[in-house]
Amino acid sequence: MALSPALGCWVGERLGGGWKLGSGEAERPGGWKALKKVAKFQAAAQEAQNTQDWDECVASANKILKNEPTIQRVRFHGFDKLCHCQIQGGFDLKDARKSCSDALNILEEPRIYCDRADAYLNDEMYDEVSFNHMPISIMWCTVRLGTNMKEIK
């Protein structure tokens, strides 16, 4: 099973911090078995996104968050998938915006700003779409969404 770079960093944090992978350690919360579970859910979420199975994508993303409650760089991937898949799957846009914001609180990625803007636009909340603090997102979203974001802000 291939691990994402973020999950690879997670292994390094855990192992670099003196974790041992003996039989007792594998059962410990946050041990090797937990890592394998999170990697499995990450792969399932990505596969579901690739096949546009939005229900499965959301379910797998929630499992990432449930199984990794502390390491923010790993949780980022759960929030990122939730954000994108909730919007694409027609889920509650308020939940999608919250997932996008949670992801952005961990790592600012222009595409997530665009997903969040998409959620606001789909809910006709034009006044909430603001990119004043991240101008590169205006250009990126303009191309992606086919909208002149400058007219909206």
Question: Would you mind describing this structure in some detail?
Answer:
- This protein has 153 residues and is mostly helical.
- It contains nine helices and no strands.
- It has helices at residues 5-16, 23-27, 32-50, 54-67, 72-88, 93-106, 110-122, 135-145, 149-152.
- Helix 4 packs antiparallel against helix 5, helix 6 packs antiparallel against helix 7 and helix 7 (110-122) crosses helix 8 (135-145).
- The chain is globular and about 45 Å long.
- It starts with a helix and ends with a helix.
- Residues 1-6, 8-28 and 148-153 have low confidence and may be disordered.
Fill in the keyword field for this structure.
disordered N terminus; 153 residues; mainly alpha; globular; disordered C terminus
Secondary-structure-based class equals mainly alpha
SSE string, helix = H, strand = E?
A: HHHHHHHHH
Gyration radius, in Å: 17 Å
Question: How large a portion of the residues is in β-strands, by DSSP E?
Answer: under 5%
Helical amount among residues, as a percent range? over 70%
Backbone shape: globular
Question: How are the SSEs ordered, and which strands pair?
Answer:
Layout: H1 5-16, H2 23-27, H3 32-50, H4 54-67, H5 72-88, H6 93-106, H7 110-122, H8 135-145, H9 149-152
TL;DR of this structure?
This protein is mainly α.
